[in-house]
Design goal:
Layout lengths: L11 H20 L33 E6 L4 H18 L2 E6 L3 H10 L6 E4 L2 H9 L8 H7 L12 E2 L2 E2 L2 E7 L2 E5 H7 L7 H13 L5 E2 L10 H14 L2 H8 L8 H15 L4 E2 L14 H6 L4 E3 L20 E5 L11 E10 L4 H10 L2 H14 L21 H11 L4 E3 L1 H4 L2 H17 L4 H11 L3
Parallel strand pairs: 1-2, 1-3, 8-9, 12-13
Antiparallel strand pairs: 3-12, 4-5, 6-12, 7-10, 7-11
Helix pairs in contact: 1-2, 1-13, 2-13, 5-12, 8-10, 16-17
């Protein structure tokens, strides 16, 4: 592979002009949006809000074109991605076109196998990046791109898309999973302090039960994906009770589910959930309660806490005030005190390249930059009319002023992670991570199988 010099010299004045013009157009467009627009009827291509900033005619990339394909297809998300790419397009002279589709996962397989892939794909599951690398469908990230972005991301961020010692993906979006949403009035009236360690969280759970307060809302139902919320708890606690080395070996299949350390974590989770009075399950049982149905009971005071990712704000009742001193606030899902670390479980997307060309690597580097994070967040917030944008980046150099207070607290957790690890089930072979880990985990939650029986079945399903 050629190691191209990927980004040409760019004038800061042109960049600022591009940003101003781009978001002026976004604001104008959002001002005329119908608040009742249906996201489900989203276009496959992002809305056109291209900045009209002049490009530098001397730029050697002017007149080239790069295509990007990914799973984000709503007016807000796909549109905001295109808005951010338009800023760089106006600056560099590259025509950049993003297309989003809900069936991206199936379509990208067919496109790659058929020899007709996009220039860049946005992968929500890094395990798939590894699959495509094994098929030689995607390209190694050049050293120049890697060196330009790696210092901008927390330690371990690039490891997620590294296979066989080679980097194949660039991070461009990060979701935070290691947080707990809590009812502030319950905490205030009970005199409860936000726990600073997992031991304190466990003690708080028992204290609340003793005092007649239901500590947790829990639900793991999600249609054919039922059980994934249990896997998130497992992953967070393997990082805390064991460590990141065990976590990495477990995700890779080198540490088995039947390993006493993994079984012990599952028993810790179920011991907490099964304690009498510990859980409010709106659906009658944990496995029958949709994961998103915990917002209303949390606000209503049926429970005090709910562990869920940063996107959970969308499942709170409309009009719920969120943040310090509001109806619902969040705290970091705490670590084991003796470990002295700050592990964080994440999810997100990585971009990979199919075509070796200077313009492609320029766009790839932009995706991993603070400039992309700033532009994407500003655009998505504007398209959603303020409030929670749904976008986060762990980029260390981004401008945090583009986030609101709650989002800023999420980013700070991401940036201070030590260590950060990607959602394990998304990294495991699909037959396990999106299969038996869900189904057998649900059997253990229901009590249909013991943890040992369920986890032995997961091990037996691991591809040989």
């Amino acid at each position: 592979m050629k190691d191209h010099s990927t980004r040409t010299t760019r004038l800061r004045a042109s960049r600022l002009l591009a940003v101003v013009l781009a978001f002026g157009l976004i604001a104008a467009a959002c001002g005329s949006d119908d608040d009742g627009a249906d996201e489900a009827a989203a276009p496959t291509a992002a809305p056109a809000t291209t900045a009209a900033a002049p490009t530098t005619t001397a730029d050697p990339l002017a007149g080239t074109k790069v295509t990007v394909y990914g799973p984000e297809s709503s007016e807000e998300e796909a549109g905001a991605m295109q808005d951010a790419l338009d800023v760089f397009a106006a600056e560099s002279g590259i025509e950049i076109v993003y297309t989003g589709a809900r069936d991206f996962s199936d379509q990208i397989n067919a496109q790659a196998a058929g020899g007709n892939p996009p220039d860049i794909a946005v992968f929500p599951q890094p395990g798939k990046v590894g699959d495509f690398a094994a098929e030689n469908w995607i390209l190694e990230i050049p050293a120049s791109v890697k060196s330009a972005i790696e210092g901008q991301w927390p330690a371990g961020s690039l490891d997620t898309a590294t296979f066989g010692g080679t980097l194949y993906g660039v991070p461009n979006k990060t979701d935070l999973k290691s947080i707990v949403w809590y009812n502030t009035s319950i905490f205030e009236s009970g005199g409860y302090a936000v726990p600073q360690s997992f031991e304190e969280l466990s003690a708080l759970t028992l204290q609340m039960i003793t005092e007649g307060v239901t500590p947790w809302c829990v639900g793991i139902e999600s249609g054919p994906a039922t059980g994934w919320a249990f896997t998130d708890w497992m992953e967070d606690l393997v990082l805390r009770i064991a460590d990141e080395n065990v976590y990495d070996q477990w995700v890779a299949g080198e540490v088995k589910f039947a390993d006493p350390r993994i079984v012990g974590v599952a028993e810790t989770v179920l011991g907490l959930w099964n304690a009498p009075g510990a859980v409010y399950a709106a659906g009658g049982s944990i496995a029958a309660t949709p994961f998103g149905d915990n917002g209303e009971p949390l606000v209503a005071g049926d429970c005090a806490m709910h562990r869920q990712a940063s996107f959970f704000a969308a499942f709170l009742p409309e009009g719920t005030s969120i943040g310090p001193g509001q109806e619902v606030d969040v705290f970091y899902f705490p670590a084991v005190a003796a470990k002295g670390n700050r592990p964080v479980l994440t999810a997100g997307t990585y971009v990979s390249a199919f075509r070796d060309a200077p313009e492609v690597w320029a766009v790839m580097e932009f995706f991993g930059s603070a400039e992309y994070a700033n532009a994407r967040q500003a655009a998505q917030s504007a398209r959603k009319g303020g409030g929670q944008s749904g976008f986060l980046s762990a980029n260390l150099d981004q401008d945090l002023s583009v986030y609101n207070d709650l989002e800023r607290s999420f980013v700070e957790i991401l940036q201070t992670a030590s260590p950060a690890r990607f959602d394990g089930s998304d990294l495991m072979p699909a037959a396990v991570g999106a299969g038996t880990f869900w189904t057998e985990g649900t059997s253990a939650v229901n009590g249909d199988k013991s943890v040992a029986e369920a986890f032995a079945a997961i091990d037996a399903s691991w591809p040989q």
